[in-house]
Write a structure and sequence with these properties.
By secondary structure, this protein is α/β, with parallel strands linked by helices. It has one domain: 3-Layer(aba) Sandwich (Rossmann fold), CATH 3.40.50. The chain is built from 8 helices and 7 strands. A 7-stranded mixed beta sheet has the order 3-2-1-4-5-7-6, sandwiched between helices. Helix 3 packs parallel to helix 4 and helix 6 runs parallel beside helix 7. Bound molecules: S-adenosylmethionine (SAM).
């Protein structure tokens, strides 16, 4: 998954503030409870998101793709008083695991999990979004982006995960639906006059996007 060499990734992780025990416990439990622990946002990206949230001081954070709650809890830790995270998850089992981890965290009062297709959840939301983290089915990445940009508050921003897709986005021999969808999103964002963006080479590539 990471685009950087393993030893660089390990060094960066070793020199990043460690996770609190309750978050580490959730990550370890995910490895036992699921067969897809590689999907977990994890230490480096989690700390990165927490830092961005702390800097932006959003009232409302929206996450697309909860899995077992790691990023939702990381972002909740950076929120100002009164801030909240709405996190969207389609899979009932993932949602149940996330609910249990969130309940065991210090931030259960800041996080609301909405179960169902994220596009429907986003369509039902009327309040301005201050920060969004997109990390669900890649085929819908462009749809999530187009749904979120008009909802952004004046200083609102979006982070999109896996935009380098382990380097597959630049391999011309790869043309599966997920890779093509990520390429389409990257092109759209880069040429969208409404926004400014930067791809951070954190883990699998994380684009930060803000309104102009
Ligand atoms: C890469 S994982 C998310 C990782 C998560 N952000 C974390 O902190 O570990 C992607 C998640 O998106 C969910 N998902 C896939 N399609 C979805 C959809 N249409 N709506 C909502 N969630 C979806 C999957 O079930 C999975 O739990």
């Amino acid at each position: 998954m990471p685009v950087l060499p393993e030893e660089i990734e390990s060094y960066a992780s070793a020199h990043t503030t460690p996770e609190p025990s309750w978050l580490l416990a959730a990550a370890r439990a995910t490895a036992v409870e699921t067969s897809s622990a590689q999907m977990l946002t994890g230490h480096l990206a989690g700390r990165f998101l927490e830092f961005v949230v702390w800097a932006l001081q959003p009232r409302l954070v929206v996450e697309v793709g909860t899995f077992t709650g790691y990023a939702a809890m990381s972002m909740a830790a950076g929120l100002p008083d009164g801030g909240r995270v709405i996190t969207c998850e389609l899979d009932a089992r993932h949602a149940a695991l996330a609910r249990a981890h969130i309940a065991a965290s210090p931030y259960s009062d800041r996080i609301e999990l909405r179960e169902g297709p994220a596009l429907e959840t986003l369509a039902s939301m009327t309040q301005p979004v201050d920060f969004a983290f997109v990390d669900a089915d890649k085929e819908n990445y462009l749809n999530y982006y187009e749904a979120l940009v008009p909802k952004l508050s004046e200083r609102g921003a979006i982070a999109v995960d896996n935009v380098l897709w382990s380097g597959r986005v630049l391999d011309p021999t790869v043309s599966d639906a997920a890779t093509e969808a990520i390429r389409a999103l990257n092109e759209r964002v880069r040429h969208d006059d409404r926004v400014t963006c930067v791809i951070a080479t954190v883990r699998d590539g994380l684009t930060l996007i803000r309104r102009r």
